[in-house]
Every structure is written in C-alpha cells, then in structure tokens.
Design a protein that fits this description.
Strand order of the largest sheet: 1-4
Distance between the termini: 56 Å
Radius of gyration: 17 Å
Order of helices and strands: HHHHEEEHHEHH
Number of domains: 1
Number of strands: 4
Structural class: mainly alpha
Shape: globular
Strand content: under 5%
Amino acid sequence: MIRSAYIRISQTLAQHSVVGLSLMHGVGVLGMISPLQEHFRLLTPVNLLICGLLLLLNHREINRTLFTFATFVFVFGFAVEYLGVNFGLLFGDYHYGKTLGPKLCNVPIIIGLNWLLIIYCVATLTDSLKLPVAAKVLLGAVLAVFIDWLIEPVAMHYDFWAWADNFVPLQNYLGWFFTSLVMMIAYHLLQVRADNRIALPYYFIQLVFFLLLNVYLQVH
C-alpha cells in the first residue's frame, strides 16, 4: 500500500517536473530571441538552480554516494575552469561574461552545477544501456562533448563566455572529453545509482533548447 502510493507520487512528481522543464525552456527560447533577451539570459543561473533542484527531488535514492559524486563533479568542474580561465590550460584562451552570474577567481560559481547537470544526465542515459562499463564511460564523454558543441555558438552570442578571436579551438573539445571522462569514471567507481525519471527527458529538452537557438542564430 505504502509502496504503491510512493510510486504514484513519484510518477506524478516526474510528470509535473518534465512539463515544468519543457515550459521553462520553451519560454526561455522565446525570451532569448525576443527584445527582452537581455533580461532572460541573466536568468540562466536561476534556470540551472531550478533544474538541479528538480533532478534532486526526482532522484530515487538520495544518499551519501550521490552527494559525494555531486561534490566531486562540482569541485572538479570548477577547478578545471579555474585552470582554463586563468592559465589557458585544458580548453584554450577564453573568459566568462556576465550571463552566468557571480564569479570566484574569474569563474562563475554556478559553472560547477552546469558540469554536474550535464554529467549526471549523460551518466543516466549511458547507464540505461546494456554496454560494458568502459563503453559507457567513453560514450558518456562523447555525449557531453556533443552538448558542449551545441552550447558553444549560443554561449558566445549571449555572453556566457567568449573565445580569443571568436574561435572555438579543438583543444576545448579535447579538454571537455577528458574532463568528462574523469567524471564518468568517478560515477562508476562510486557506483552511483542514477534512478531518475526526469534525467533523460531533461537531457533531450536541453538538446532541443540549444538546437532551436542554434537554428535561430544561423538564420539571423
């Protein structure tokens, strides 16, 4: 009885979360291509926080392992960005704009959460496949690079970050691959159980969001 009630509540929460995420990103696309884009893009940190909260609420088993993984990805993600922005290591010559909010040592504090959301959703996707762990790790890193490839043009246009000579170097994608690889390895070493009904929908909502903005930028 209790279990069936819990399942119903979980399903309802997941359904409402997916609808909410879809509406939020749909409104976000319209806002980013409207005359009010300046205001909408500054809501990006709020968007990331809401998405993170919804993913946490829908994670089936919230335990120490999950928080250990989340802390590692957040801190490691921030650390590689610190090295990248301040010393040109890993990714190339770039700097952050104002869109992602307050910074610490020239790096937006929220960037660690951005890494976490991407890796968590990618890990959920690959973990659902019947593949060897090594294949899941490699595929996860590739999928993370793919979403970064979609984000880059949007990020440069809306002042998330900017590259020297307005050119994204191959080094960036290699840096993303190896950084994601380390995070995916940590996911499997810690044996995180990514049982989350909205992680996959959120990943594809993100893909559609950035695809639509890329199409808009191409035709304008």
